[in-house]
Amino acid sequence: MPLDTLDALVRSNFTSLDGVTIDHTSFAQLTTLHLGGTPAATIRCATTRAVVDVVTLLDAHNIPLIIVGGGSNLVVADGELPVVAVVLECDAIAIDTTTGLVEVEAGAVWDHVVDLCVEQGLGGLECLSGIPGSAGATPVQNVGAYGVEISDLLTEVELYHRDSGKREWVAAADLELAYRYSNLKFTARAVVLAIRLQLYTDGLSAPIRFGELARSLNLPQSEAEARTNPRTVREAVLQLRGMKGMVYDENDHDTWSAGSFFTNPIVSAEQAETVRALVRTTFDDDTARRMPCFDVGDQRKLSAAWLIDRAGFSKGYPHEGAARLSTKHTLALTNRGNATTQDLVALAQEIRDGVEQKFGVRLHPEPVWIGVSID
Ligand SMILES: Cc1cc2nc3c(=O)[nH]c(=O)nc-3n(C[C@H](O)[C@H](O)[C@H](O)COP(=O)(O)OP(=O)(O)OC[C@H]3O[C@@H](n4cnc5c(N)ncnc54)[C@H](O)[C@@H]3O)c2cc1C
């Protein structure tokens, strides 16, 4: 469908809906990478009812759409795109400090939710401080950081099923949440309208499982998985993330990213030993011994950041150019202010291929791609 027809169709059908506003904000303005062209229309929904109405109508007209929260996990093509961006701005938050039950609408800013819960004395979310984006996107890739994943606290999600038109609360278990995965990711089969969380009411944080965080909190090694003050943990996490450029800041190009660009590869135990042998040949015994490698059932999780660095792509690579690795973290691909999506894709390909040539491990991107691909 030509773009102007699409625009006219959207305007004639959607302008009268309650809680809906329409503009032409580009993906460069909607995403933390500040990349991507212009959608046929940008429809902002202030209520969950408006989200359901808009998605129902777009689907009825077979108009392609992309749900956008904070745009912090999106890589979008340059140019004009025959797709409507549906931006979720419904953001009610209900916190019950007696039971620890929290219900949040999808468009709420995630870090605001964490901050409010910590402020009201509830524990559990503090390790997920500083993750950009919306509450509704947290189940989509089962966000995680510093040893905690949203699956540890999520009990239910309210979904709008696009095929059946049904709106219902479903158990978190039905989403098959796993490392940076749910059955919502890459499928767009349903819209998350709201989430429910069960937090701790005893004034303590989630167990601290991440070594770097435990050290920064001065927790004794003998107290593995200790629980402590949620506010102190939140501050420590924000400080650690800040040093790595992992707290989004409009004024810092090191944070114009999608966070970790590649997921940590999960490989067989045999392949992990092959990689270790290659590291030994390329470097030395000591480097091979220290290669990060964690048990995940009978498989092994390697560190994408470590492999990228050892493949010769150091922080800031390629030290000039519009798209570069963050100067604070090898796993974040960044826009230095004037990059195009094509610049970013070229860098992503170079890094993925460089790691594969050196260690035989193929890295897979974590963000969702719209109108463009790494292959
Ligand atoms: C600096 C930085 C640091 C980051 N650190 C982390 C981290 O520590 N851990 C981590 O896991 N991630 C991290 N991320 C990635 C990102 O912040 C998370 O994945 C976040 O949950 C994305 O939320 P969003 O609202 O921005 O989603 P968007 O980018 O707007 O959307 C991402 C995908 O989810 C879909 N989606 C969004 N909302 C909904 C909804 N309500 N219903 C259905 N589908 C939806 C979109 O259609 C799209 O496919 C980081 C990103 C940045 C820029």
Automatic annotation (TrEMBL):
Catalyses: UDP-N-acetyl-alpha-D-muramate + NADP(+) = UDP-N-acetyl-3-O-(1-carboxyvinyl)-alpha-D-glucosamine + NADPH + H(+)
Enzyme Commission number(s): 1.3.1.98
- Sorted UniProt keywords: Cell cycle, Cell division, Cell shape, Cell wall biogenesis/degradation, Cytoplasm, FAD, Flavoprotein, NADP, Oxidoreductase, Peptidoglycan synthesis
| Primary subcellular site in the record, as a coarse category | cytoplasm
Q: In which pathway does it act?
A: Cell wall biogenesis; peptidoglycan biosynthesis
Family, similarity comment: Belongs to the MurB family.
- What protein does this entry describe? UDP-N-acetylenolpyruvoylglucosamine reductase
